[in-house]
Design a protein that fits this description.
seven-stranded mixed β-sheet; 49% helix; 10% strand
């Protein structure tokens, strides 16, 4: 009994011990699992919070709408700006879309996007601008107008045409936008124009590196009210920034060789373009995608206007192939001074552009020779009176022809009937073997048509 009781106690003790150890082991494993779950939850929370922070750091996207004539250089310029191979470009569609990633001026980690809209170079596609410039994004939109500087005689006409197209679309759009927004975006253009300041430079002439993160300071409403706009500036305020880009400036050398262009020609062209740009508060920049000239400057200026990045450069007027005049840097007085000092083609500042920069005679003759003569339609009444006599003569000839044809047909028909009657009534001469002459038929005694046919003819009219 003693040994039995001892073994029973030992067995019970071992069961409790094993049960206790098992429960402690289960608790330990549960704690480990809880710690792993907690660590996983913390990891996901960290990832989500970082993603949320990155989204909040993203600046609101903006829009750049490219318009201009066919073959003016839009596609090639965009390819150079986006770092694409310009030798493998393909023709676009009516309205192309792409984008460019940009960093914020204050924080390089925060990234935004410039939506690029490129309209086909035909004014018939202008209705598609409603997809690029909308009432939701008009306050974050910039318009780029490209000009083909290899044909400078068409530059002014092309610029005015596309400015009118953009102005018409924005005016129609302004009817859908509350008046307060239109007034605000127009006020922003005035503010940007008056807030222009040149980039500070060091003694070596380079941009001061200490001003890398300095952006332009916008003026208050009180300051704007006290500062008048220069003469002629922003007389046509569309409410959106405009950048006029002269493309293919590398072709100026060919213009000098083939059409005897001189420095005064190029001076007059840029001076006249500056006058139009001043009216709309637009910037003017010359580029060459082939030589990669001013392409990076153009992209930096887009960042400056859309995201208040530092102004990339001061105005540049010395090199004819790389003109750069930011919005707010020009005035009609500066243009007059440049015209007076550098212009030798004419002394008349108000002379029309086409009177000085006209299509070369060689091209005019080629165009005239290739054109078909213009046909002028004659008045309907004069045409009918002129051809009335001719039509009456033709009608009389047709009647006479029909009458004579009908008579000849009746005569032929009458002769055939008489021959058949004569053949039927003629006596037959019997033939013999000795006879050597063939039998002869009796000739008809009359050549007149039968009486019934004559009555038929007299009763009908031709």
């Amino acid at each position: 009994l003693f040994f039995f009781s001892k073994s029973w106690l030992n067995h019970r003790f071992h069961r409790r011990f094993i049960s206790k150890m098992a429960s402690e082991n289960d608790k330990r494993e549960e704690n480990i699992e809880n710690e792993e779950d907690t660590s996983n939850i913390n990891l996901w929370e960290k990832i989500l919070s970082e993603a949320s922070r990155s989204v909040s750091d993203r600046v609101e996207s903006s829009n750049a709408v490219f318009i201009g004539d066919k073959l003016s250089g839009k596609t090639t310029l965009l390819a150079r700006v986006q770092g694409l191979d310009i030798s493998e470009l393909k023709k676009g569609v009516a309205l192309d879309y792409s984008f460019i990633e940009v960093s914020n001026a204050d924080d390089e980690d925060s990234v935004s996007r410039i939506n690029i809209w490129q309209l086909e170079g035909d004014s018939g596609y202008s209705d598609l601008l409603k997809f690029a410039i909308t009432k939701e994004n008009i306050d974050r939109t910039l318009v780029v107008i490209t000009l083909d500087m290899s044909q400078p005689w068409n530059a002014l006409e092309s610029l005015k045409k596309w400015l009118n197209i953009a102005q018409k679309h924005i005016q129609n759009l302004s009817q859908q936008v509350p008046p307060g927004i239109i007034d605000e975006i127009k006020s922003n253009q005035v503010n940007d124009f008056l807030s222009y300041t040149e980039v500070s430079t060091t003694e070596e002439g380079k941009n001061d590196p200490s001003l890398k993160n300095v952006v332009k300071k916008r003026k208050t409403a009180e300051e704007l009210a006290s500062i008048p706009l220069p003469e002629g500036a922003l007389s046509e305020n569309l409410g959106v920034p405009i950048v006029v880009v002269g493309c293919k400036t590398d072709m100026m050398v060919q213009l000098e060789k083939e059409y005897s262009y001189k420095e005064s020609h190029f001076e007059y062209i840029q001076q006249y373009l500056r006058r139009v740009c001043l009216q709309y508060g637009a910037a003017l920049i010359y580029t060459s995608a082939k030589k990669d000239l001013n392409c990076e400057l153009f992209l930096n200026y887009l960042r400056h206007r859309l995201y208040s990045h530092p102004l990339p450069s001061n105005p540049q007027l010395l090199e004819k192939e790389s003109i750069f005049i930011p919005s707010g840097a020009d005035s009609i007085n500066k243009i007059r001074v440049d015209f007076k000092e550098n212009q030798t083609l004419t002394n008349d500042f108000d002379l029309p552009f086409e009177d000085v920069i006209s299509i070369p005679k060689r091209l005019q003759n080629a165009e005239l020779s290739s054109m078909d003569p213009i046909a002028v339609a004659e008045d309907d009444q004069e045409f009918l009176i002129k051809h009335r006599e001719t039509l009456e003569k033709e009608e009389a000839k047709d009647k006479e022809k029909n009458k004579s044809g009908f008579l000849s047909s009746l005569q032929k028909l009458g002769g055939t009937v008489e021959q058949e009657e004569a053949t039927a009534t003629a006596p037959t001469v019997p033939t013999t073997a000795a006879s050597s002459t063939p039998p002869t038929a009796v000739k008809p005694t009359s050549t007149n048509p039968p009486y019934c046919i004559l009555l038929l003819f007299r009763g009908c009219s031709p």
